[in-house]
Design goal:
Blueprint: H1 3-21, H2 26-29, E1 40-43, E2 51-62, H3 72-77, H4 88-92, E3 96-103, E4 110-120, E5 127-134, E6 140-145, H5 146-151, E7 155-159
Antiparallel strand pairs: 1-4, 1-7, 2-3, 2-6, 4-5, 5-6
Length: 165
């Protein structure tokens, strides 16, 4: 199963759960999405009063000058494929960066999806679906805890890029 298929399942499940909890008929309202690199996410309302609970802003302060480790992933995919999003974590999260919770002033802003992937939580070993969004300044990325961001409507909707047929 590809990352996009995993995200597709998660989006559908949480939209259905959310609408059922609100006693809304989901047959008419639910849309299923396959989202990935190049698509757009629209930020919703933050769960908290001042900041988003499931969106963090990372600002790159120093790039690691060392080459990527030449392992099987790097040999297969290279550094970062912007068309598919493959390798984004390994590309961006090297070196130094500052991190902060994203302020809620960004409601309604559209952000390009740079990549999606499933990572393991270090503490528990559980899978976590992560989406990376292009930040609002150079060398910034918004890290999205995808499952909870969709569940609590911090990601309001998705806009698919036009794909060639």
């Amino acid at each position: 199963m590809s990352i996009k298929a995993t995200v597709y399942t998660v989006v559908s499940m949480f939209l259905c759960t959310s609408l059922c909890a609100q006693n809304r008929p989901f047959q008419e309202d639910v849309k299923e999405y396959e989202v990935g690199a190049g698509d757009t996410a629209v930020l919703g309302k933050s769960k908290g009063a001042e900041v988003y609970a499931y969106l963090d802003l990372y600002r790159k302060t120093r790039w690691d000058p060392a080459d990527l480790v030449q392992d099987s992933f790097t040999l297969k995919y290279g550094a970062y494929d912007s068309a598919t999003g493959n390798g984004f974590y390994r590309y961006f999260f090297r070196g130094d960066f500052d991190v902060a919770e994203l302020p809620n002033e960004f409601k309604g802003r559209k952000c390009e999806i740079l990549g999606v992937e499933v990572l393991k939580k270090k503490e528990t070993g559980e899978d976590i679906n992560v989406m990376y969004l292009k930040g609002f300044q150079e060398n910034t990325v918004i890290w999205v805890d995808f499952d909870d961001a969709v569940k609590y409507m911090e990601i309001e909707r998705f806009i698919a890029k036009k794909r060639r047929k």
